Each structure stands twice: as structure tokens, then as C-alpha cells.
Amino acid sequence: MHRLQALASPKGRYQSSFLLLEGSHLLQEALKAGLLPVEIVATQKWIEGNAELLGEITFEAQIQVVTQSVLKAALTTINPDGVASVLSVDVLPNLNYEPNFVLALDRLQDPGNLGTLFRTALAAEVEVVWLALGADPLGQKVLRSSAGAVLNLPFERFTNTEEEAINELSENLKLAKNRGLQIVGTYSPRSSVENKVSPYWEIDWREPTVLVLGNEGTGVHPKIQDCCTHSVTLPHNEIVESLNVASAAAPLLLERLRAKMIS
């Protein structure tokens, strides 16, 4: 079970090129996405109650039977439902074309926010997520809060020093701008930036777009700001200084889908 514990850490995932899915729901989401695990670790009770789910695995994954107490000791879930599965990182989706709708995240720290953003981005038909450092999208909290969306949506994460990660994201934004995409930075209503900050509905979301969201505490880095062609905000009551980034992103991400539906 030490192997499962190791896969709960970024270092363990990086060294092994495998990731851990805790629970039945993430296993189901992986199978729905066509991602087949290489190993199933489960209690006898779970195996007996999930014959149909196991039948969806069309190749011989290694199945290891353990007790509930052993599984609980190996996982981060407080009360595991009886199963964990191991998936190769290599089977995660990759983007093999130039995207027209991108979500770019600048040092987003909270795993719950990141997972919610992945889920909303998938619903909004985002094609790829770019991440400059921040929370690990393959961590258990992100996987759970994304409800498996991380397994369906390609992402690229820049993970060196903060300066290098910001530089890499900046280069991606510049390349996207050169291809004709509008780079839309997001700000609170009272932000002071060089570009005019407009309500989010005043831009044409039908255009190829990169939506940029900043760090929960410091917002969008100045170097990232410099890459933006548009600056938008979500107007709200001034009693609230700022909105939660995942909550604020939902109407912005879905506005493009709405605009395309009515055009």
C-alpha cells in the first residue's frame, strides 16, 4: 500500500507516471472517458457489489483485494467506499490542434477552486487549460472537486520556478495573440489596469478567446496583464470586495457558449 500512498504526492506521480483515483465515482468517470486503469485495489465487498462496473474493464487490469482498514490507511479519503484505481498519466487527453477557446490560470492555489474551474470549463467547451504553477490538477482534492473533469479536459502545467512558469504562460499567450485570439484578463470592478476594464458582456465572446484568471490573493501577474488585449469584470455589490475566482469564472466561461448558441 506504500505505492498508493506515494501516488498521492506530486513527486510520486512524477516519478512513476501513474496517478491514483480514489473511489467509485472517479473510476466510473475514467471509464466513461475511455481511460482504462492498470490496477484496481478493492475490498471483497466492493468487488462483489460492482461486477457490472468491473465488466467494463476490457483488458486484464491487476486486481488486488484488501481489507477496508488497509485501504483507509493508504488513501486520503477519510471514509473510502471500497476501491482505488491506478491510471497511467500517458492516457490522459492531449490536444493535437490549435485551440480557439483556452482557460489560462495564473498561480491558482486552492484545489477546490481548481477542480470547480475544470468542471465549469468542460461544461463551457474549453479546449485546453494552461496553468502557471498553482495547485496540482492531479491531486486528490482537485480530482474530487472536478467530478472527474480533469480526466476529460487536456491541460498543460508549467511547473518550474514562479518566474519561469509566468514566462512560459506569457509566451503561450503571445503565440495565441499572434494567431488572432483575444486574450481576456479578469479583474475586480475597482481594479486599476492599463486597459479599460469593461463588463464581461461588452466583448464578443464568439471570437477565439483565451480567458485569463489570476491568483486568489494577488490577481493576474503584471507580465500576464501585458499580454491581455481585453480586460473584463463581473459587476457586483461593492459590499463584497471580490468574488471567489471559481464562482466568478462560471458566467464568463459560459457566456461564450451562450453567445454561440444565439448567433
What would your notes on this structure say?
This protein is of the alpha/beta class and 263 residues long. It has 2 domains: 2-91, 60s Ribosomal Protein L30, Chain: A (2-Layer Sandwich); 101-262, 3-Layer(aba) Sandwich (Alpha/beta knot), CATH 3.40.1280. 37% of the residues lie in helices and 20% in strands. It contains 11 helices and 11 strands. It has helices at 2-7, 10-16, 24-32, 44-49, 51-55, 68-74, 111-123, 140-145, 162-178, 222-225, 245-262; strands spanning 18-22, 39-42, 62-65, 83-88, 101-106, 128-132, 155-158, 182-187, 197-199, 209-213, 230-233. The strands form 2 sheets. A 7-stranded parallel beta sheet has the order 7-6-5-10-8-11-9, sandwiched between helices. Helix 7 (111-123) packs parallel to helix 11. The longest helix has 18 residues, at 245-262. It is elongated and about 60 Å long.
